[in-house]
Amino acid sequence: MSNTATLPVRPRGDINIKPLGVALLFIVLGALYLAQVVDARQSALYLVGALLGVALYHAAFGFTSAWRVFIADGRGAGLRAQMLMLAVGVLLFFPALSSGTLFGTPVTGLVSPAGTSVVVGAFIFGIGMQLGGGCASGTLYTVGGGSTRMIVTLIAFIAGSVIATAHMPWWTSLPQLAPISLVKTLGLAPALLLNLAVFALIAGITVLVEKRRHGRLVTPDAKPVNGPRWLRGPWPLVAGALALVVLNFVTLALAGRPWGVTSAFALWGAKAASSIGIDVASWTYWSTKANAAALAAPISQDITSVMDIGIVLGAMLAAALAGRYAPVWKLPLRSFLAAVAGGLLLGYGARLAYGCNIGAYFSGIISGSLHGWLWLVFAFAGNVLGTRLRPLFGLEVERVKLAAC
User: What is the pTM of this model?
Assistant: First the structure.
């Protein structure tokens, strides 16, 4: 489930003091700055982002390679961890979303339309995951962990996102259902039972496939640990899954909505385009009240942006603690081209699909949104094609050879 193909290869060793100090300094100064210029809540969300970065890195919790190793080799540990994460998520989120409040704060889920744009967007996002080498959260945490290839993917991701905003009026004019919340449509208990049953079914399928392919469930290789495992990693996938869902729940309590990632990429791209004279403010997407306000405001005011920056710094801190922060600046041409193509597909697909593996899949499903399930089906199909395309760009497709027992 890790993004080992995109992270720098370096044995776990002594703590990398300089990058650790830089990460800590920016995390602390950023939190203090946001508390002063915005408010304590924004500062807390920035710190939640940093904790998400630590959890993503230490658990190597990427969605991309989890799907790839299942598609290519039938290993399902990563998918089962995702199903556990989703199961705990609906148990936490559905009651709060059903009541409309959490600890006295109004909350709402990420519920979006389900239709043509989601089908197309999720599919091309899935291809982009495999060519770009990561998903939305995976791109951020591997950039923070020192992957220079993923910097290319991130830049292209941002470009694809802002290009998609120019085309959104056409895509949203295509056939689609109105936003459907399973919690509101079915009721709390039926929605919970239905979702838990589907999670169990998917996990069960991965067990059957893995046992048929390998004769048993494959145990991931243990990695050497120097020092406290909770501090230096690696964490078990289950620990990573639980950390992510708890931190998403904290995000819901603080922000009033679940964790998202890619809306910030579109915003960053739009601001960059505006700075060179492109009138993005006149585009339909950026003319809505919320988007126009975000475009006019400083980045520090945007919840998703500050959390994304926190993820990068948290992953940098985790990589330094693990002794693995060592950027490598050589990038083969085919790998570079795959990163550009993958990033563009990721950005464009995320906007069309109303989110990514976090906003549409993780947070969408635990919000009870029907579009989250549609996203899962077509993004997985895109991953199948993307996995087949990886060797054309010299990218690894992980396989293991185990004797059946």
Answer: 0.93
